[in-house]
Predict the 3D structure of the following.
Amino acid sequence: MKTTNIKRLAACSAAAAVGAAFFMATATQPVHAAAEPIGPKLTPRLKQMLSEEMLSVKQSAKMILDGLLAGDHSMVATQAQQIHDSFILERSLTEQDKKDLMKAASPEFLKLDGEFHQTAGKLAQAAQHKDYELQRFYYSRLVESCQSCHSQHATDRFPTFSGAQPEGHTH
Ligand code: HEC
């Protein structure tokens, strides 16, 4: 059962060569990794729903910024609540949609989605309490959610995130 170092080395490099060939063959295909974009795995119906949700989230995020700049607590509260309530998983998904989503979405994606909507809820609360500082804090957390999910799960839609540092650097 003893293998000489030479033999072991040879076996190793053979395995490495096979590995490299496999890697090259699959490099252009989406590899099964946590950072795989979710979009192509969604059913057309779910992709459409996600896209609509994202466009409305973007609209709300802009209005929240307007509200923050103007000290308009009720604008911030209303729009943040809207993001919170738009939770794709809590909306009127059919049983089939839910199954399809569970098949496509990784646990990491679902976790980020959950945290994102939770942050929106906390932002709405901070606005209801007219707490400016906390609103700024949760707004920045919200933007962080957009970036971290897009950079991990939507690099097909936002290719400029590919190869980017997960944490933003300041200039
Ligand atoms: C949990 C993950 C996640 C979070 C959080 C998230 N997004 Fe997205 N977003 C996606 C995915 C995935 C796509 C690509 C969907 C596709 O393949 O069409 C996307 C796409 C988009 C698009 C493009 C929509 C289109 O069809 O043109 C916009 C705009 C967008 N997101 C805005 C936002 C904003 C603004 C935030 C934060 C306030 C945010 N997203 C937070 C996952 C997320």
